[in-house]
Amino acid sequence: MRSNSPTCRVIVAVVGVVAICLGLVPGWAPAAEEVVLYTARHYGQEKAFDAFTQKTGIQIKSLNGDAGQLFERLKAEGDRSPADVLITVDAGNLWNAARAGLLAPVTSAELTRNIPAHLRDPESRWFGLTMRARTIMYNTKKVNPADLSTYEALGDPRWKGRLCLRSSGYIYNQSLLATMIKRHGEPRTEQIVKGWVANQPTIISGDTKILEAIAAGQCDVGLTNSYYLARMLAKDASFPVAPFWANQGTTGTHVNVSGGGVTAHAKNRAAAVKLLEFLSTLEAQQMFADTAMEFPANPKAETNPIVRAWGPFKHDDIGVASAGEFQAAATRLADRAGYK
Amino acid sequence: MAVPLLVVGTAWRHPAGAVWRHLWDTQLAGLIVNTLGLAAAVGAGTLAIGTALAWLVVAYRFPGRRVFEWALVLPLAVPAYVIGFAFLGLFDFSGPVQSALRRALGDEWRVPELRSGWGVALVMTLVFYPYVYLLARSAFREHGLATLETARSLGRSRRRAFFGTVLPMARPSLVAGVSLAMMEALADFGTVSTFGYRTLTEAIYRVWHGMFDRAAAAQLASLLLLLALALLGLERALRGRRRFTQGHRPAGGVAGVRLRGWRARVATGACLAVLGLAFVLPVGQLLLWAGELVGGARVPANFGALLGSTFALAAGAALSICVLALILAYAVRLHPSPGARFVAQFSSMGYALPGAVIAVGVLAPIAWLDGVLRDVVQLVLGRPLDLLLTGSAVAVLFAYAVRFLAVGYQTIDASLARVPPSFDEAARSLGVRLGGTLRRVHLPLMRGGLLTAAILVWVETMKELPATLLLRPLGLKTLAIEVWELTSESLWAEAALPAIAIVLVGLFPLMLTTHLTNGPARGPE
Question: Of the residues A317, B348, B413, B483, which has the fewest C-beta atoms closer than 10 A?
């Protein structure tokens, strides 16, 4: 037994540590008024939450996760779920949450006044809170913006070997393709995607990585969300990449949202609605725009100066909800077209 | 333990014909080839590197050996996707290495694309070789040198003694290590998606999140499970009826051969190269990122809580899984029927599945149990009950057990397999009870194996993301979750500090075991 004793001591020590640490895990102490938030959006919203708590005295408890997983947890918890509000990025995700019955409709004059109709659910189960454009990014030293026009035209042979794309499994690309299907139908969209594939795009994981690749000259053009470039420019104003607003002469640039809704079994429904309403106000929208560098969903709020410098643009006002409707079709289409 | 795996299987009640036809038409064959190819490459790579390094540090003396002996385990403490990202950061087209090469050699200069099969295999080999290294090292320590000496004294050359005697005796440990590495490769999502390499696991996520078809995703997952079972079955068939056991106590007294001159330099250089690539480079990149932060790196306000919960969950998992694995391995030893062996193997198959699939598989039975509890309480006390298990630490620990039992079981089983059954018989015939045999005969002989199992589980748990994310209680957050939240927004500089903390928390048990196995154990014997 003698040689065994250090092991025993370690086990005792470990058990002790576990017991102490588990004691530190917050229990279920009933707090003052609170709202429980499940969120798949993890950046640039804390300031707005703090302002909400300061204003109303309502505490926010949040559980961050990945959208697909949070949906599974909500389903499993059923009518006993502690969640009151669900926030996630991408309209397709919001559409799917609504279809799975996870969200309850909200009637609020303030929300309908603050958020434009095409950025929210027609049945008022979710509301877009921020807007982001997914558009063409180009190297300012190597590309003449006059050569750029539309998403479709990225299939032009002149971009052969010069295009960087993110994988088709990436949710924002799925939503872009889904809205294209809604506009043009599957055959035409498949043709467009095949055009991109024929240009042998370099598939890069991460929008920031794509921007770095464009800056370094690995490729000359790519598709990314707008705020990633804004964050790069905030760090380095001479970063040689600029956005080109796609499809200005036709349908307008594709936009997506991050947004939220009240859960079907919310225990603190009144507080939950209050939170959503607050997040749509000018005050909170300004915080979103300044920290996350997205476009505020509320048109009265001002964009960050870096973003404003890119100038106004026409955005595709097709209801973002269609992103969800055609998402599965978009995934299959990408597979068929050989878009990795 | 097998319940969540069976939950995955029940998805077949509604076969997703359309999705399968679509996958068949477009990519299924390629996915299977990619997946198997990756697993094979990672298996071969980790076997070669892990075994060679383990033998080097056990059987030879060379400058730096005492440091390398424990330092070579370090890459295990770094999450695979962090190493992958650091590699891309350094060696990508826009990274410093290629930029410098282009400046020196002209703009047309290109290196082979890292975002490809070989890039993924290289990164995974570097991250997962420590499994083989750790298991091989404890096997070589327990019997390797003494066996070598015996074989040599019988007139065998050093090389023939190694390949003919030492390696076959270490086989259970080597197989255990390699199968852990291969199962990791099968289940990995983070690295393959970072490198844009398409495997079955990647397809599972695509079907689940892109087509919102969870049933089809689960059916794909069961295909993955089948592949893993086939791999293990293949090994058993190759091993046949041979058994290798070891009769005497760990031979601490036999010293390694001192290397001199160029041989010593090659040995030191090899260890340095592996350690440099797999640990120093990525951690250095993390430190650089942390340094890049505007206004310097800040320690997050909740750092203490993050550290505490990461520690608690890792320790809880290490303890519960080792006990569970020991019971399982011991039960199979006492009743070695093919049925028992299959049950034990199958319960530890969770390791070959992506964590997110396991997490959802765990969620179903837990939520069901919560429903039963509610009904019972309603009936007995006449009042409703809050969710007790769903979103509790118990659920998280259960998921860890399902996912990481393989790590504990493979390691402990391999260690137990080297104790000859005649020892059990001798002890029992001397009137020692079952518990006494375990405590006084097996546990002391298996100490190295048990500790190895505990560290491996600890390090795995610490890095675990999807199950913790899905099942954790409100307000509970670990370091891995913090890193993920930041990296999912491409905030690598901000993520660097918590990532470094993960590495440090992983170092703690590594140093503890080095102290325990090298320190007191060596002295009196």
Answer: A317
Residue A216 sits at the chain B interface (C-beta within 8 Å)? yes
What are the chain A neighbours of B23 within 8 Å (beta carbons)?
A: 335
Judge if A34-131+257-302 and A133-254+321-337 fold alike in CATH terms: yes
Residue B316 with chain A: CB contacts under 8 Å: 18, 22
> Which of 3.40.190.10, 3.90.550.10, 3.30.43.10, 1.10.3720.10 would CATH assign to domain A34-131+257-302?
3.40.190.10
Q: Is residue B524 part of a domain?
A: no
pLDDT in tens, A82-140: 999 999 999 989 999 999 999 999 999 999 999 999 899 999 999 999 999 999 999 99
Sorted by sequence, the CB contacts under 8 Å of residue B336 that are 6+ apart come out as: none
Cβ distance of B196 and A77 shorter than 8 Å: no
Structure tokens at A308: 């404003």
Which residues of chain A neighbour B291 with C-beta distances below 8 Å?
Answer: none
- CB atoms < 10 A from the CB of B214, how many? 20
Q: Could you tell me the pLDDT band of residue B129, with boundaries at 50, 70 and 90?
A: very high
Closest among A332, A288, A325, A293 to A310, alpha carbons compared = A293
Look up the CATH number of domain A133-254+321-337: 3.40.190.10
Amino acid at A269: R
The DSSP line for B182-239 is HHHHHH--HHHHHHT---HHHHHHIIIIIS--HHHHHHHHHHHHHHHHHHHHHHHHHH
In chain B, the residue whose alpha carbon lies closest to the alpha carbon of A70 is: B470
- Report how far residue B152's alpha carbon sits from residue A66's, in angstroms, rounded to the nearest whole number: 58
pLDDT at A2: 42
Note whether B340 contacts A: Cβ–Cβ < 8 A. Answer: no
- Lookup result for tokens 């014997």: B525
Structure tokens at B305: 């809580």
Q: What is the pLDDT of residue A9?
A: 60
Residues 6+ apart with CB under 8 A from B151: B160, B161, B164, B165, B166
**What pLDDT shows up at residue B115?**
77
The reply to whether A234 touches chain B by the CB within 8 Å rule is: no
When the pLDDT of each residue in chain B is averaged and rounded to a whole number, the result is 80
Taking a C-beta distance cutoff of 8 angstroms, is the pair B497, B515 a contact? no
- The ipTM estimated for the assembled molecules is 0.77
Look up tokens 């390691």; give the residue. Answer: B411
Whole-number Å distance between alpha carbons of A38 and A82:
9
C-alpha A166/C-alpha A40 separation (Å) is 20
Whether A59 has its CB under 8 Å from any CB of chain B: the answer is: no
Number of domains comprising chain B: 1
Contact status of B320 with chain A (Cβ, < 8 Å): no
Is residue B55 within 8 A of residue B492, CB to CB? The reply is no
Query: pTM of the prediction?
Result: 0.82
Instruction: Compute the C-alpha angle B475/B81/B491, nearest 5°.
Output: 60
Return residues 482-521 of B near A (CB < 8 Å): 485-486, 488-491, 512, 516, 520-521
Q: Give the distance from CA B485 to its chain's centroid.
A: 23
The β-bridge relationship of strands A295-296 and A127-139 is antiparallel
Residue among B6, B500, B479, B404 nearest B184 (CA): B404
Q: Answer whether residue B344 is part of any domain.
A: yes
Q: Do A69 and B473 touch (CB under 8 A)?
A: no
Closest Cα in chain A to B99? A216
Band of pLDDT at residue B523, cut at 50, 70 and 90: very low
Which residue type occupies B518? Answer: N
Alpha carbon distance B514, B370 (integer Å): 42
Residue that has been written with the tokens 């932060």 in this structure: B293
Instruction: Select from B13, B8, B16 the least CA-distant residue to B363.
Output: B8
B150: phi then psi, degrees, rounded to nearest 5: -60, -50
How far is it, in rounded angstroms, from Cα A30 to Cα B445? 51
